[in-house]
Amino acid sequence: MAEAVDLDEAKTARFQEKRERILDAATLLINRRGLKGLTFVDVAEKVGLNTTSVTYYFRRKEMLAAAVLHRTLDRIEAMADAGAGEATPRECVRAYVAANFELHARVARLQETPVAIISDIRAMKPPLRTELLDRYLTIFRKLRAYFGPPENARQRALSTARAHALLQNMFWLSAWLPEYGVEDYPRARDRLIEIFEHGIAPAGAPWSPEIVPVPKTTGHSQGMPGHYLRTATELINERGYRGASVDEIVTQLNVTKGSFYHHHDAKDDLVLDCFRQSHLRTALVQQAGQALGGDQLHRLNSVIATLLGVQFFGDFPLLRSTALQALPGEWRSDVIEQSDRVARRFAGMLIDGISEGTVRACDPLIASQVIMASLNAAYDLKKWASGMAPGEAVALYASTLTHGLFAD
């Protein structure tokens, strides 16, 4: 009897070990190509199995993708729990950020598989999508609880903005942390925590931004009409790359597929054009902000306020970076280069403000990435912002950047 039990345990261990290898391979493929690029053939090749063996563990691709995303949410929730037991909001945030940096360090040392990019959850079909979104909201609520029970509606709205900025900046780490050596992670962690705690503006600095003009299109759309770009951007932001099909885009536009393909050979072309438009429009706002009068903090605040207004209330938002993983590698590099250029311009504005004395001394490279992450993800809070006056919504969310996550 003991031998039978040992045999069963061995079979269970082998099953679990192969299942984890399949999940690891699928995670890497999702991060590289998005859910649309996940195939049983590629997973099988990575783990040294045949396709039939993979289907023994997961009958359908959607089930494999859901298992990968559930495992990722397990890991994200564990990091959220790492901060939940601390005594103060600052200590909660510090512990949570430290847990994220520790994970990235283990991944960089090849001791652990990266977490999967979860942006395509919205493209999953029910009931898998519902289960995953419910888990994501549970994690978000745990982060919001870091800031204590809200005393009123304004405090609740502020806690929501703070939790959102914190979570999205942890997702954004993969965009800039690989530029550092693992030995420099502790310093980068401490500088990021410092920005979360104090923001980029000196204590008591006023918030009185000017809203600068935002172009609808830049004239560099390579023949694609502006309303195509706007519709595609909104659909991709709301449903993810996979959820925004060509059929859905042409339905929203009330045009034929023939008309769509007259302008672009494939949806990837359209996504690339949407990214170019977003980066060019952002750059033009930055340039307009730099041309304003006043001090450097005022100019930076004006750019931040303008772009937050675009994401919350504009009819032509900026494209979320979550669509990036679906692009072919050579195009992805081009988009990343455009994004880096925008980030460097923010870093330059911060450096000028530090030299001038109107921006708090901070790491401008890391602070620029915090700005990028927060502006990029702000679209997700359109519904949150719709319950407030535009100026109040922008000011509340911007306070996470200007004065940190704990300012009154």
Walk me through this protein's architecture.
The protein has 408 residues and is mainly α. It has a domain at 226-402: Orthogonal Bundle (Tetracycline Repressor, domain 2), CATH 1.10.357. It has helices spanning 2-33, 40-47, 51-57, 61-84, 89-108, 128-145, 153-176, 185-198, 226-243, 246-253, 257-263, 267-290, 296-313, 329-356, 364-377, 382-386, 390-402. Helix 6 packs across helix 7 (153-176), helix 9 (226-243) packs across helix 12 and helix 12 packs parallel to helix 14. This is TetR/AcrR family transcriptional regulator. Keywords: DNA-binding, Transcription, Transcription regulation.
The dominant shape is: globular
Strand content: under 5%
Report the CATH superfamily of the domain at 226-402: Tetracycline Repressor, domain 2
Structural class, please?
A: mainly alpha
Q: How far is the first residue's CA from the last residue's CA?
A: 66 Å
Instruction: Give helix and strand order, one letter per element, not per position.
Output: HHHHHHHHHHHHHHHHH
CATH class of the domain at 226-402: Mainly Alpha
Approximate helicity band: 55-70%
CATH topology tier name of the domain at 226-402 = Tetracycline Repressor, domain 2
Q: Tell me, rounded to a whole number, the average pLDDT.
A: 88
In the CATH classification, which architecture of the domain at 226-402 applies?
Answer: Orthogonal Bundle
- Number of continuous helical runs: 17
Radius of gyration: 22 Å
- Low-confidence runs of at least 5 consecutive residues: none
Q: Tell me the number of strands.
A: 0
**How is the main sheet built?**
none
Pfam families: TetR_C_24, TetR_N
Domain HTH tetR-type: 16-76, 222-282
Protein name: TetR/AcrR family transcriptional regulator
Keywords: DNA-binding, Transcription, Transcription regulation
